[in-house]
């Protein structure tokens, strides 16, 4: 009578489970890719997209900005998935993975755009890599036209220290605009509580500068809301969030923030600059 040998490797079951998860994710990604190709469609006109924005604003904002009947983040994302299908891009700075996690629940394998400026903290790159390995999203590294060394050669070393706006324009704004041209909607993690410049952030709006629809599902959230969601769903967080960096950008232009200060006060500290240009 033959018997099946029992493995003496205590890690065998863990390896088998990991292999099964990888196979499942691969199959899911392949199915998404095939469905996306089969249902590809031309980008709708500005007029058509603006009409969708008007309908969406009426549906999602209820009786007004910040009103009790304003849609939840989950409802905003569900609306976007229904209206735009695969033509959605998530902009994520990798301060955390809450936004990709939320959107992927309604739109698995959604494209997550990461602005690879060449100046990120090591922790930010590590967060991006962990998201790519652990979440059902598609990471798209958005690259500037010039590498850091090429930019140094053309504009002089450390342009960020002399003209931060020009550096942001070349390494963030232009690459994102170029990439967003292929989508109908982009999702951001902008919150009203982050800075005075963001207090009137709507849930859905027409982004005329980039020529597409923009949603801000976290507009009504606080930083504590974000952390609570991350804890509840065990979502990846950038370690710098617990090291005095509530808002994380490029390493040379981001400083720690003292308790009680504006969360974005550590961005371009000492300069007359509060935004990189992506959301203005």
Automatic annotation (TrEMBL):
Sample GO molecular function, one term: adenylyl-sulfate reductase (thioredoxin) activity
GO biological process, one term: sulfate assimilation, phosphoadenylyl sulfate reduction by phosphoadenylyl-sulfate reductase (thioredoxin)
Entry-linked SUPFAM superfamilies: Adenine nucleotide alpha hydrolases-like
Residues forming coiled coils: none
Pathway given in the UniProt record: Sulfur metabolism; hydrogen sulfide biosynthesis; sulfite from sulfate
Localization per Swiss-Prot or TrEMBL: Cytoplasm
EC number: 1.8.4.10
Details of cofactor binding: Binds 1 [4Fe-4S] cluster per subunit.
Domain Phosphoadenosine phosphosulphate reductase, first and last residues per copy: 89-255
Predominant cellular place of this UniProt entry's protein: cytoplasm
Catalyzed reactions per annotation: [thioredoxin]-disulfide + sulfite + AMP + 2 H(+) = adenosine 5'-phosphosulfate + [thioredoxin]-dithiol
Cofactors demanded by this protein: [4Fe-4S] cluster
Catalytic residues (UniProt): 276
Keywords: Cytoplasm, Iron, Iron-sulfur, Metal-binding, Oxidoreductase
Protein name, UniProt field: Adenosine 5'-phosphosulfate reductase
Originating species: Sanguibacter gelidistatuariae
Gene name, Swiss-Prot/TrEMBL: cysH
């Amino acid at each position: 009578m033959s018997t099946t040998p029992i493995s003496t490797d205590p890690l065998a079951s863990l390896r088998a489970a990991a292999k099964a998860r990888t196979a499942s994710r691969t199959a899911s990604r392949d199915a998404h890719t095939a469905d996306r190709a089969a249902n590809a469609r031309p980008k709708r006109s500005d007029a058509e997209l603006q009409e969708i924005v008007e309908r969406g604003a009426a549906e999602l904002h209820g009786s007004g900005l910040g009103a009790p009947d304003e849609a939840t983040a989950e409802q905003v994302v569900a609306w976007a998935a229904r209206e735009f299908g695969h033509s959605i891009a998530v902009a994520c700075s990798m301060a955390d993975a809450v936004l990709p996690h939320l959107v992927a629940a309604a739109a698995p394998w959604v494209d997550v755009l990461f602005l690879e400026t060449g100046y990120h903290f090591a922790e930010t790159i590590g967060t991006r890599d962990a998201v790519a390995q652990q979440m059902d999203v598609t990471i798209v590294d958005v690259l500037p036209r010039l590498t850091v060394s090429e930019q140094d050669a053309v504009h002089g070393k450390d342009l960020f220290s002399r003209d931060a706006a020009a550096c942001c324009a070349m390494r963030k704004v232009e690459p994102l605009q170029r990439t967003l041209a292929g989508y109908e909607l982009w999702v951001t993690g902008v919150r009203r509580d982050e800075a005075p410049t963001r207090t009137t952030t709507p849930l859905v709006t027409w982004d005329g500068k980039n020529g597409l629809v923009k949603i801000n599902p976290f507009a009504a959230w606080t930083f504590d809301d974000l952390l609570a969601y991350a804890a509840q769903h065990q979502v990846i967080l950038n370690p710098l969030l617990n090291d005095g960096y509530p808002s994380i950008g490029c390493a040379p232009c981001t400083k720690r923030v003292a308790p009680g200060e504006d969360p974005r006060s550590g961005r371009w500290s000492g300069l007359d600059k509060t935004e990189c240009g992506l959301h203005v």
